[in-house]
Request: fold
Amino acid sequence: QVQLVESGGGLVQAGGSLRLSCAVSGRTLANYAMGWFRQAPGKEREFVAAIGRSALSTAYADSVKGRFTISRDDAKNTVFLQMNSLKPEDTAIFYCAARAVAYYSNDYYSRPDDYGYWGQGTQVTVSS
Reply:
């Protein structure tokens, strides 16, 4: 069983930066494709960024492209989301998700239903 724990959220002014971390335990991160999603009050959970087994295989929502960067450190069993130039509309609970994939897969996934494991979320609040 995979456990995911997010950290690094908080309150930041518009234009600022935050770095979210997702610590993976119970299994080796190298066997998983990972994703970040977010959910604002009254809205559905939406895709933010994804990364395949290869760190070169990444995808981003248009709303965060050029501002956010997803990365992974398999040796530390941790996935990161570097968020720069934050905007008030980025305010949401951010969730980390994991999907077991074959050893030869470099696919990434952008739908919540693609993932079988989720963290509890970390709050990001951006003030104007």
